[in-house]
Structures are given as structure tokens and as C-alpha cells.
Amino acid sequence: MINVIPSEARASFDRGWLRGSHSFSFGEYQDAENTAFGPMRVANDDVIAPGRGFGAHPHSDMEIVSIVLNGKLRHEDNLGNVAVTSFGGIQRMSAGSGMIHTEHNASDTEEVRLLQLWFMPTTKGLQPSYETTSFDPAALTGALLPVVSPEGGPRVASIHQDMTIYLSRLTKGEAITYKQDEGRRQYIFAIEGKLGLNGKHDLTAGDTARVEQTQVTELQASEDAFFMLIDLP
Fold it and tell me: What is residue 77's three-state secondary structure?
């Protein structure tokens, strides 16, 4: 079963300094029928104006992943972590028993666009932690590149949940197949271009798909495409 949600169906907003869209209930957008997909709770596509950002605010019992698509994102938290991330970088925060942080656009001249993803952890009350990793953007071409996983690695951020985040770039006409175990699900987000799913569905930039009861997914680029695939329990 593949449920495609077109870009225009997501909850868009524009506050001047911050614009973007929510794929799940978040902030002022509340929909009791759209609060989660498995352990996934938030999928925000945010653009932050130069020199602006989110002031200090708390989180708890949530795995938060920020994927910077362009520009520079600055993170600072009460554990003493400070980091500036650009494309090719991943920020992972395990809020656990409680954590306070800020997020700002590190540039005074350029916008920063990021995907911020929240997931419920497998265990509550974990020791809070923060991690940055970097991947090779060239390795995205023609492959599903893992950038977040439970095991982590030298170029893969770790996460306290049985899930993996992949990024990929396909050239027009190129296809890739993803196989997963029975009982699992996928969340797919088209970042750029146009992507076909199993020859029956098309995603254009900003569209998402929630895939269930489908162990084999064929992804083909109708035009050059950049997308994210998340394998979830």
C-alpha cells in the first residue's frame, strides 16, 4: 500500500523569518488523523532567514535529526555542544531525560533549508546526547546512502530507534530497488526532481509517500531526482 501526499496537501506556513511545511501535526497545525507514522512524529521542511532562528527551548524523549539541504545551521545546547552544519552534514540529538538547545541560521546573507525529523526512541529517559556526522555527497549518486542508523558509523549518525535514513540521487531514467522485511514501512520524500514508485505513482519535489505492506519498492527517476527514504518499524 502506497499513500502519496502531494506537496500542496502538507501544512504550509510563512512567518517571514521562517517558512516551510509540516507533514505531521506540529505547532499550530493539528490533525488528530495525522500525528505519526510508526515511531515518526515530525517531518518539517524549514527555511530560516539569514541571521534568524529558534531561541533556547527544551525537548525530552525524542530523537531529532536535522538534514541541511543548503546554507548553514548552527546548533548550541546545554551540554556544551556547538556545531555549524552545511550540506553533507547530519545533526542528531537524543533529548532523552531532557535537553535545551538553540538552532540558528549561521549566515547573515543566505537562507538555510533543512529537514527536521523527530522519532520516538525505543527507550524513554535516556542520557541526553548530541552528534554530528558528514557523508560524501558524491556517494549519493545511483545509490541509497545510509546517513542515520541504529549502529551508526564513521559517516553515519547513530539513533536510538530501529530505523535507517537513506539519501539518494538518481539521473533521469535511472532506477533503484529497495527491499525490506515484512511488517516494516517506508517514508519517502522527494526533495528535487520527479520520482516514480513501482510504476504506479509519481512524486514531484515536495511530495511524500507512506509505504506499508510493500516489501519491494522500485524507484525510478522520471527526471533527475534527489530524495530521502526512511525504513521504519
Answer: strand
